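Board work, copied verbatim: Lipoprotein-anchoring transpeptidase ErfK/SrfK
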Amino acid sequence: MRISKLLVAGAVLSALVATTAAKAEEDTYKIYDPSTGSMQTIKRAPTRRAMESPVKREVIDYAGPYGAGTVIVNTAERRLYYVSGEGKAVKYGIGVGRPGFTWSGTHHITRKAEWPGWTPPPAMRKRQPDLPIFMPGGPDNPLGSRAMYIGSTIYRIHGTAEPWTIGQAVSSGCIRMTNEDVADLYEKVGVGTTVVVLHE
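↓ predict structure ↓
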């Protein structure tokens, strides 16, 4: 009788360990970290609140030189502005290029994509051979929920699964926003929208 109880207890314990391990795997995902050149295992945020930007989106007064419909990226401030007109602009927090990966210029949005796929550049794959040749769109994709392609450059304004990096200089030159903020901007702009990137 005692042996039977021990066997049952052992089976229950094994099932519990297996369930816990499976749950732990479900609660994590892998994402490319350009600062280290490797795939990192990230714990999924347990709540929607944890996925929000640490920099809140807000409507501000705007009296600058750019016209309505322009997107202004200020890498020094780590902010993006969408000029909405009538003296107003929407200000978003962003993540920008780390040292050595900053740039500036005036371009236009040439393409928009929802849940875009990601093809790591050859230079990245050379540094990190375990990177996939292609990663389909989805919540684990480094480009997040939306992407807006900037001119003929390799850069994009895109979402991220790492909202805690907003306000930091961590990317390889792309402009990252939270998935919620990039979806909001995505609805405001179209192909041909002017993007002004300032670097001071």
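The domain at 49-198 is CATH 2.40.440.10 (L,D-transpeptidase catalytic domain-like).
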